[in-house]
Amino acid sequence: MEPVDPIDARLLQALGEEPRATVVALAERLGLARNTVQARLTRLEARGVLGSFDRRIEPAALGHPLRAYVTTRVEQRRLAEVTTALARIPEVVEVVGLAGDDDLLVQVVARDADALYSIAGSLLAVPGVERTSTALVMRQLVPFRLDPLLARRANSDDTSTRPG
Amino acid sequence: MEPVDPIDARLLQALGEEPRATVVALAERLGLARNTVQARLTRLEARGVLGSFDRRIEPAALGHPLRAYVTTRVEQRRLAEVTTALARIPEVVEVVGLAGDDDLLVQVVARDADALYSIAGSLLAVPGVERTSTALVMRQLVPFRLDPLLARRANSDDTSTRPG
DNA sequence: GACGAGGTTGAGCACTATGGTCGCCGTAGC
DNA sequence: GCTACGGCGACCATAGTGCTCAACCTCGTC
């Protein structure tokens, strides 16, 4: 994916501070023409820079305040099959494939400890899953954020990938 | 956090399908009065149901296509100090405290493998950090999603927490 | 140096949405 | 029976939208 340029970064920063800001408000704030902001927003969406809206929703607000990471080892050749089965479990909110000892990292949410226990059971019951290890999230110490990276990109002078 | 009611869930579902939908469009779609939708949206934001806008931004679009989970063990009594230090590293996008052998799970993003390597070094260099283990995310098999839970809540008949 | 592609700009257009307030009404709880 | 709350529909003035246009400017290419 092509990285965004500094102007887009500033746009995203502004949106971060005021997600419901209107296009004209953003244009004023950034010192750009309304037209430009509108065009750039459209392009950002089209390029897939913005992920699904779901990512902004707090699972706790859906009655699932518990969050856990389940590291999972699977029979390698049944990986696709396992992925499909995991996707069918509503409480599984994300699955990523890892490099290393564990094959999958499964992020799950649950209503309470009891529910979490049975979800962990559901994971183990999936054919192809060999071993799981559940790590409960007790506290979010640094909430998800991208502003430091946004700020860096907004302040870079050119449009190419610069610092580390 | 108080869970949302089925109407709010349907509202969030609709937003998920069309994040930039106007209030009137949402009202039409849900068969509600515009006034109601507006009031509910305001309440949703006020209640903190919606997290930061950053969560929708794809780190790859910021020039950081690599993502890794770093499990970290720290000197327990220096936890706060360590958290602060980690928060100062731009590539650290989230830190959660875990129950179990590992104390922290640190989500980092990086420009390339080289950058990732030096970020891992930065983590280890934080005073109080005893041991780290980096797991590179190779593929997102199930992208983050909440729609199954939203759908369940949207279809439940009452406003209290129901099924598991 | 001329060329075209692509992005930015300001203007203008008809249409629509916004945020605010109002009174009315049904439901749930006391 | 009363109150609190949420939904409703209506109204208003203001503001934003999505769109098109022609005029730039700055690249990189030929």
Automatic annotation (TrEMBL), chains A, B:
Output the PROSITE patterns linked to this UniProt entry.
Answer: HTH_ASNC_2
Q: Which SMART domains match?
A: HTH_ASNC
Keyword Transmembrane helix applies? no
Question: What Pfam families does this protein map onto?
Answer: AsnC_trans_reg (PF01037), HTH_24 (PF13412)
Which keywords does the record carry? DNA-binding, Transcription, Transcription regulation
Query: What's the name of the protein?
Result: Lrp/AsnC family transcriptional regulator
Query: Superkingdom of the source?
Result: Bacteria
